[in-house]
Amino acid sequence: MNFLDPHHPFFKPLWVRILVTLVPLAWAGVELYGGSPTWAMISLALGVYAGLQLFWTFNKTEKPPAKKDDEK
């Protein structure tokens, strides 16, 4: 189990992966502008992690095998 599963159907559209990556990165800018470098670094780390998981890992790993209809 991953913190952010790149193979979840929610992340299949490209615009969702881009949005999930850019929101924490933009928030890091807001926090830095507001004078909170600690929260900016936390948000930056989350954005970088999301980008790595949703773009690098998403393209590098094979998709897990599909479940059969009789399995639950």
Give me the secondary-structure topology:
Layout (H helix, E strand, L loop, with lengths): L13 H20 L3 H24 L12
Q: Give the topology string: H per helix, E per strand.
A: HH
Choose one word for the global shape: elongated
Average pLDDT: 85
> What oligomeric state do these chains adopt?
single chain
Strand fraction: under 5%
Q: How far do the termini sit from each other?
A: 17 Å
Helix content: 55-70%
Rg computed from alpha carbons, rounded to a whole number of angstroms = 15 Å
Could you give a short account of the major beta sheet?
A: none
Summing up helix and strand content along with how strands pair, one would put the structural category as: mainly alpha
Number of H/I helices: 2
Q: Low-confidence stretches at least 5 residues in length (pLDDT < 50)? A: none
| Number of distinct beta strands | 0
Task: Please characterize this protein's 3D structure.
This protein has a domain at 12-59. The chain has two helices and no strands. The protein has helices spanning 14-33, 37-60. The longest helix is centred in the last third of the chain and has 24 residues, at 37-60. The model has no long low-confidence stretch (mean pLDDT 85).
Primary descriptors:
72 residues, mainly alpha, 2 helices, 61% helix, 0% strand, transmembrane, DUF3329 domain-containing protein, membrane, transmembrane helix
